[in-house]
Design goal:
single chain; 76% helix
Amino acid sequence: MGTSRIGHAARRLLAELLRFLAVGGVATAVSLIGFNTLVHGMLIGTAPMGNQPIAAFVLANVVAGFVAYLGMRLWAFNHREVQAPMRSLATFFAWGAATMVIPVLCLAISRYVLGLSGVWADNVSANVIGLSLSTAARFWVFQRYVFLDAPKTVVRS
């Protein structure tokens, strides 16, 4: 493989990663606002799920997951093949749920092992540490198992 092919592949991977991170940034904003509204009363003054931080985190992330799927399907990975859209959607959410275990565990340890329940503790544990780790896992998983490269065509002369 020549250096120009390697350079092209590296540029393509970097562009894909940047689009993935941009879409993830929007989805993360949806998740952060949803979680902090439900658990800490941000924007509405009351915390309807103040005693249920794990359920609130999961709910906010399900909503953010739909935002992420649309952004990734329509923009970040739009050049990749989707042979079965419903299967792709199901795979996306299955892997998303699997990788959501990471921030949920971080939040649970912070809340129930360390006894920390403030806004900063919740957000650092779930939305900084947990989401940073799960973002790396999601990029690899989505690229490898959800949004597949188009099959290479063989050109014969």
